[in-house]
Amino acid sequence: MAKVVILTGAGISAESGIRTFRASDGLWEEHRIMDVATPEGFARDPALVHRFYNARRAAARAAQPNPAHVALAELEADPGHEVLVVTQNVDDLHERAGSQNVIHMHGSLFGALCHACDHRWSAPEAMQPQDTCPECGRKATRPDIVWFNEMPYQMDRIIRELEAADLFVSIGTSGNVYPAAGFVQDAAMCGVKTLELNLDRSAGSEMFDISRQGPASVLVPQWVRERLESR
Ligand code: APR
């Protein structure tokens, strides 16, 4: 049984029509990270932050998984592989493609979180600053998204699984945001083989044993086919 930990970023959902962050037409060209992706920005202008994530939730709902998401679900279904997908993405395209073992380290557009009591529930289609928490009644509801300066979810489990893996694969991420950008180094230090599949060379490409460049919808199904045929 081969144990594979797969990190995914915005690039795997790009061909489903979801915008990435750091491309020339990416989200961070139009929006300031400080305004829409930090706790300070939310405290300053919650209506602006809700508008940003409401629009992204609608875009994610309208999108469909692409062949890269589907191929990862196929690999997970293979009895010779134990697959964990660790995604930085806040869409649900991995789950809709059929992946079951998925960690959303940066949270989810489809969750609401009470900043006051930590209660979590399903996000309505459009969240508003006046929404109250169904548990404690405070007006402290926010999207269940991990912002800059906040701790990503399930880090202990991710590191444990990564260090016990046979192979670490990074797909569609620019390698600019830690801690995810450091996974390749953690893996290499534990003797885990590393592979990158990305449209272009990322900030950390040279740290991978193998780095292949191309669109995820082509590279990922190709790599999964190679794995399944070599068994
Ligand atoms: N196939 C494969 N890779 C692609 C494709 C594609 N079709 N399109 C784009 N890419 C690659 C880009 O070349 C880039 O290296 O995906 C990467 C996307 O990088 P970013 O936009 O920086 O997205 P990501 O790495 O997921 O960002 C990490 O930053 O702002 C935060 O919280 C946000 O989770 C996000 C984190």
TrEMBL record:
Family annotation (SUPFAM superfamilies): DHS-like NAD/FAD-binding domain
Active-site positions on this chain: 106
Chief localization: cytoplasm
Top-level lineage group: Bacteria
Function per UniProt: NAD-dependent lysine deacetylase and desuccinylase that specifically removes acetyl and succinyl groups on target proteins. Modulates the activities of several proteins which are inactive in their acylated form.
Protein family (similarity comment): Belongs to the sirtuin family. Class III subfamily.
The protein, known as: NAD-dependent protein deacylase
